[in-house]
Amino acid sequence: MNPVAIAIFQMLVIIALAPLLSGIMKKVKAFFQIRKGASIFQPYYDIAKLLKKDSVVSENASWIFHAAPVISFVAILAAGMLIPIYISDMPFGFAGDLIAIVYLLALARFFTALASLDTGSSFGGMGGSREMFVASMVEPAMMLSIFAIALNVGSTNLDVISQTVSSRGFSAFSPYHLLAFVALFIIAIAETGRIPVDNPATHLELTMIHEAMILEYSGKQLALVELGAMMRNLLVFSLLANIFFPWGIASTASVAGIAAALVAFVIKIAVLGAAMAVVETSTAKWRLFRLPDLLSISLMLSFLALVSFIIVKGG
């Protein structure tokens, strides 16, 4: 496969697998809540249904409201092109690293929050302010957690990190590796809007964050927003899977290697999604002002990972 085909295929894989991950997590949550639950393919049906509907837009909405879903979707997809999904040698790996990915995800969040304020909705403003409050603690901790692995590799480029960790095999496991993974897993809870930080299944005004920001959207615009949120979830889990456990990822662009890598990738994100669903069903939603306690744990674990790296390498 040539580089263009690899990039296009990765784009299609991200868009195609994002609803599947959401469906798996909802199914696992239903199982632990002793419910049958919808099919794991229900998110595909929901997106298709929304795409057939027209949008109802407030008369107070400006161009920001209309542009935000597109900008957010494109920014998340651009971040996905920099993250190794099924092959460690990404065609656009030279264009950005960890810092670029964090900023692209922040760009998507910024425009979604901006659109929530555009219509003058009180719920939208509340959700946007809460989202920015959480993001101010999530983004530094996310970068710091991966920096511990980046220092060991000598690069913040995710392709290089994935290739190096994969080549080392199980010898890559170390105290700072495990500490950084736990730190990023906690960050993933907040970044993907899961319990105890947020509840993606609620519409209660006292608890919702992401849902409050997108209440004014409907039809095709809502489909784009929802698909973008599912893609964000997939990319965050991809960081967990292919930065800390990159085994199975293809190093060459052979058809057999890519097919095996895709199977391994689906298994890894399914396991991580199921683990996240178990965490959600075993905890309760926290009050907003308790969230710094949770996110400070992630920041502390990231610092401990860096200290462990210095101790291990210095010794």
Fold blueprint:
Elements: H1 3-32, H2 42-51, H3 63-80, H4 98-118, H5 122-153, H6 158-168, H7 175-191, H8 210-213, H9 219-244, H10 255-282, H11 291-314
Order of helices and strands: HHHHHHHHHHH
Mean pLDDT: 87
Question: Can you tell me the overall shape?
Answer: globular
Strand tally is: 0
What composes the largest sheet? none
Number of domains: 1
Unreliable parts: none
Strand content: under 5%
Query: How many DSSP helices?
Result: 11
Q: Alpha-carbon distance between the termini?
A: 44 Å
What does this structure look like?
The chain is an all-alpha fold and 315 residues long. It has one domain. Helix content is 70%, strand content 0%. It is built from 11 helices and no strands. α5 (122-153) runs parallel beside α11 (291-314). It is globular and about 60 Å long. The N and C termini lie far apart (44 Å). 45% of the residues are buried. The mean pLDDT is 87.
Keywords:
single chain, 315 residues, mainly alpha
Summarize it.
This protein is mostly helical and 315 residues long. The chain has helices at 3-32, 42-51, 63-80, 98-118, 122-153, 158-168, 175-191, 210-213, 219-244, 255-282, 291-314.
